[in-house]
Write the structure tokens for this entry.
Amino acid sequence: MEASQRVKEITELLEKYNYEYYVLDNPSVSDAEYDRLMQELIMLEEKYPELRSPLSPTQRVGGQVQSEFKKIPHKRMMLSLANAFNEDDLYDFDRKVKEITGEDKITYMAELKIDGLGMSLVYHRNLLYAVTRGDGTEGEDVTSNVITIKSIPSHIDLDDDFEVRGEVFMPKKSLKKLNDARELTGEPLFANARNAAAGSIRNLDSSIAASRGLDAFWYYFVNASDFGVRYHSKALEMCDKLGFKTNPERRLCNGIEEVIKYINEYTEKRPNLDYDIDGIVIKVDDMSLYDRLGYTAKTPRWAIAYKFPPEEVVTKLEDIIFTVGRTGKITPNAVLEPVRVAGSVVRRATLHNEDFIKDKGLMIGDYVYLRKAGDVIPEVVKVATERRDGTQTPFTWIEKCPVCGGPLIRKDAMHFCVNEHCDAKHIEGMIHFASRDAMDIDGMGEKVVEQFFNQGFFHSIDEIYHLYEHRDEIIELDGWQQKSIDKLLNAIEDSKANSLERLLFGLGIKEVGAKMAKTLAKKFITLDNLASVSEEELLEINDVGPVLASSLTTWFKNESNMALINKLRDLGLNFEYKGSTSSAADSYFSGKTCVLTGTLFEMTRNEASKILEDLGAKVTGSVSRSTDIVIAGPGAGSKLDKAQQLGIEIIDEETFLELIKK
């Protein structure tokens, strides 16, 4: 038998045995037989390297080390879900679904909401790539790590493209095994399975992911309609047949009352599951209704996530300390006796402002009820007054800045440090400047900024661009190597070319958020133009009110701010808007409501949506009588049918490209 044929034969056998063992939990061969075949495949691939595939079973042990994960856009956005917190929310969701669809009763699929890392698997021409959720528009290519999860098929028996989405998670037993091993070596323990799974998948060494005992459940067949599948339940059955591991605990529910019964059942079963869940996902089973139900900006209207009530624990309030934000805002923070809540150990919680502390009646030494809002943010709920014993001391608000000692002023419910030279404000300002939505300087997070500030490497935004002068000093610090320093310095240099809206947001001008920064950059094109406008001119812009207009003009009148602008100019930072400046009045799509459907070949739907919005169009997810244009590619389904029924203008991708070029 030829080597290539034998490699193919062994690969198919090992994939079959992986499926039986890791998905069906019903192995048909012994471990010895499996190991024998694996060793034979390893020897063949060593002898004939050209026969080794990146998706070979031998690669599931990991070993690939990458310098970074490349970004990949999602063909369809990975949306988040709206939340329901009680039965009223569920009945409201059901009512809206019925109103939009005109159906008397809806069949729902109820599924456990796995607490892990969202993932998309795309099988394209018999190749697999795995992409994290990221920001929903694009994620990171983590194929080399995900392929180490043995329950995931490396190939599927389909010729057409196939995309399935799900959750990579760490089983409870794997987390215990991992933390037991880390405890023996003195390494810090993972707080919960979600953090451990995310850290494993985002490790640049795939052998780390392979050693962590990860698993995955797949819950959404993205392009099921391409295969003639109408119902979500049938789509999951098709995933089962193709070798994917889906969660057997799902249930079809005839009406919202059965959904609530399911939720109550699994609220009780939750502690005894082999994996963590943080809620129940409810989806309309009939996928032909999805286009009619449509989408909000971030969530589909055909699904909702019921969140379990937050777990409450009691712990001691040991102290209240203060932090200073980039605007000078003073935030009180609870120092708590460490306590485990919702899967992680909590030591701090924000107390928001002076009024919050007074309303709760907090005293130092109190025992307090603590929970995580949305299972994420620690929140002090109330005082356990029944546990007061007279040792508690009243809380007194501070009169001076805890960092610089400068005076505080109160505005509304907040207190602010008014000292322009306060170190804390500078540190927070530089953290904001380097952040993802601002200048997006990869590698310059909060801890790095604090470290370099305290080392004296920089004390203002412009000095970030002189960091290269301290390269030799940085390499002497713990945790820094030549490669990581050069990567950071390159990211700083690259940020100089960012479009104006990123710089504008990064400057931290009060009232100017990321969205407003883009509106202003697009309107005025250059920073110099913006710096010279009056409040009256600003007030002519939609969404610009008196407070924002005053804040902006005041900022540009400040001499120290203009000195910073001139320094950044001399350093070579871009001061111009790089996006589309096409006039809406000149655009064929100006003022029109557009819908994208089917497959686009020259760009992603997100890219097409951005172009349309830049040209003055409104992009929506569903076709209605208010839709003006439907841009349809191959595979367009019910949206195209509805557009034809309503007599809406329909254009193909080629026509769309011609129109945007004009």
The chain has 24 helices and 24 strands. The first strand starts at residue 71 and ends at 73.
